[in-house]
Specification:
alpha/beta, 4-stranded antiparallel sheet, 9 helices, elongated
Length: 224
Amino acid sequence: MRKILLVEDDISLGETLNERLKRDYEVAWAKNLSEAWSLFSKAKDFDLAILDVGLPDGSGFELAAKIRQTSPMLFLFLTAQADAESRLKGFELGAEEYIPKPFHLKELLIRVKHVLDAHAPTRELQLDTCTVNFTQMSVTKKTGQIEYPPVTDLKILQLLIEKSPRVLSRDEIMNEIWGVDKNPSHRTIDNIIVRLRQLLGDDGEKHIRSVRGVGYQWSTEEAT
């Protein structure tokens, strides 16, 4: 089940959203910035954050910027601050949607579903050289041989694919896979990328690109 971090200080609205969203998703509800950051820090596997902007101890903008530093998690704003400057700031931070209050509940649910469906987890990857199954964490070669690489390697491959065409820094990859409390070295990431390229053969060299000074990217474009 997809996981949503709901950040809303209005108790009545929060209870309504929490109750309705829980029919389809796993929801954690925070009523202020500090509580939201605590929930996020403890469980970094949220698929989406729904953020109010005006919070008792800060702003949703501040929270989004803080989250963005450590995670590629999706987020949208749900706020009464609907002026052009605020909307622009929200999208500059990377928001998938900016929904002004008041809003229609059904419209919010449709937009949430659209965002999550558009970023649905990759279950299988079919390449010229092999097929990667992210459910079984296996790789089937064209010869029929099945391999089971380290699970962490395939999680990083899946992350690169799901965030494509974004370039992910080594720090982003480490925070997403291991969390902020258990960071390996940058060399560990580099070694995993080498293994993935070897595992995927020609497809690995073609699709897993190094971006100097930034990190790694999964590309579907042909190299020039």
